[in-house]
Structure to design on (197 residues):
């Protein structure tokens, strides 16, 4: 189609040259006094102009058709892209298992958390404050170990406090603060979350 359009452009240029030449011929014939030949040249010019008008119409039609074909090709590519995207989304949804599967997983996850909280509460209720403090100290030591902070080995290298009273007071303050924190957490837990049966 584009080749045809280019040929029509060339044809238009040739007709323009011919009409200009026919006008020159008509002028020359009038100068020589040959009115009939001048009239014939002008008629040929008029015929060429009508061909030029037809060529313009054909060219416009051809350009419109070319434009429509190009737009259809773009639409085809967009449609193909949409189909591919839809297929990928369907595959992902199949792998996920749909919304029901996600809701089921979320429910199971919440049930597992509630069960874990219930076990922690039961274990915490049966432990003394001293046991709870030791568990929390052990947890802090593990956290530091995981983070790369090495704790001094207290069993191998004990450090004696300056005064025994200061150490005892410091430990008592920490234990009381932890006990208050645990009591606060226990009081807030039942009100914040309903128990699952």
């Amino acid at each position: 189609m584009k080749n045809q359009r280019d040929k029509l452009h060339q044809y238009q240029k040739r007709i323009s040259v011919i009409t200009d030449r026919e006008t020159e011929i008509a002028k020359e014939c009038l100068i020589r006094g040959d009115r009939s030949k001048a009239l014939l040249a002008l008629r040929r010019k008029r015929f060429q102009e009508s061909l030029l008008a037809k060529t313009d119409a054909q060219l416009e039609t051809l350009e419109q058709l070319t434009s429509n074909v190009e737009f259809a090709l773009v639409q085809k590519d967009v449609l193909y892209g949409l189909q591919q995207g839809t297929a990928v989304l369907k595959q992902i949804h199949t792998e996920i298992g749909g919304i029901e599967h996600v809701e089921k997983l979320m429910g199971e996850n919440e049930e597992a958390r509630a069960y874990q909280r219930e076990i922690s509460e039961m274990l915490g209720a049966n432990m003394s404050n001293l046991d709870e403090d030791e568990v929390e100290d052990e947890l802090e030591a593990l956290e530091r170990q995981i983070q790369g902070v090495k704790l001094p080995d207290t069993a191998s290298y004990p450090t004696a406090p300056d005064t025994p009273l200061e150490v005892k007071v410091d430990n008592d303050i920490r234990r009381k603060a932890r006990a208050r924190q645990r009591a606060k957490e226990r009081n807030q837990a039942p009100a914040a979350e309903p128990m699952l049966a």
